[in-house]
Amino acid sequence: DFIRELMARGETQLGRTFIHEPVLSNEDALHVLDYERATEVIKTASHIGVGTCYCRHKMHHLGKACDAPMDVCMTFNSSAASLTKHGHARLIDSVECLDLLQQSYDHNLVQFGENVRQQVNFICNCCGCCCEAMIAARRFTILNPVHTTNFIPEINQKDCTGCSKCVNVCPVEAIALSSANDPKKPHRKQATLIEDRCLGCGLCVRVCPEKVIKLKSRPERVLTPLNGVHRAVVMAIERGKLQNLIFDNQALFSHRALAAIFGVILRLPPIKQVMASKQMKSRYLERLIEKMDV
User: Fold this and answer.
1) CB of 12 within 8 A of CB of 238?
2) Which CATH class is domain 2-217?
3) Residue 151 has pLDDT above 80, yes or no
């Protein structure tokens, strides 16, 4: 019930996908903002820690781990400072972290990180077989449990040879082989994109030997919250739980009563529509949080 409530309601999620930077063309690179780049998160972090990948480590104990690097779980800023202080992560510099990121690129891992623009606290380097975020993305596809990038692949099916490399590398099974409907070659296959599943990571572009896959911008940009406070408030608004976020001490009768009253008010159609609007979730709320300096 908790997972369904967390993922099934609302557009805003806890994590987002980072673009696979090596595949960006010069033109595409112009449309990628700094907070969308894992390299920029690394270069601007006040502290950097690296630890063992929880998901891959768990699969290792089950005898199901893949051969991807294990120590590539990256934390940043306040989270890294705390984890390294208490011995739960190893403190590293940006040079070493960028090297680990390159290793992750070389192993075709997806960068999945905190869904905020400022002070990103973690980036996981995920495989499709072990990573719980990728497994959730496959299992709960229609609920969009992971935020996509602002790109989506475009496949030139006319020149696709149906080699299936893009199918095999996709961590969320967003590409499938289908009949090319070629009367001259009745057994010919071609790659077909399942857009609703696609994270827009760009791994398929990297592995395509014929270079028939390229990235294009999504019709509408994906909104990324300013910081953790912004994300928490937006998620609460979308899920109808803002009253619980404000009056969070359920042990107090006054908090329970006020939360109930506030919840009734928020369920009134006009107010609910205003609170759920993109303007409220982005510009207005963002400016308010900036002024509060949280």
Assistant:
1) yes
2) alpha beta
3) yes
Q: Specify the residue for token string 């369920």.
A: 267
State the Cα–Cα distance between residues 61 and 134, nearest whole angstrom. 19
The predicted-structure confidence for 77-121, as pLDDT tens digits, reads as follows 999 999 999 999 999 999 999 999 999 999 999 999 999 999 999
Tell me the pLDDT tens digit for each residue of 178-232. 998 888 888 899 999 999 899 999 999 999 999 999 999 998 888 888 888 888 8
Domain ranges of the chain: 2-217, 228-292
Full DSSP string of 97-146: HHHHHHHHHHTTPEEEEES-SSS--EEEEE-TTT-HHHHHHHHTGGG--S
C-alpha radius of gyration, the chain, whole number: 21
* pTM, two decimal places: 0.83
In this structure, are residues 133 and 194 in contact, taking their beta carbons and an 8 Å threshold?
A: no
Answer whether 248's CB lies under 8 Å from 190's CB.
no
Size of the chain in residues: 294
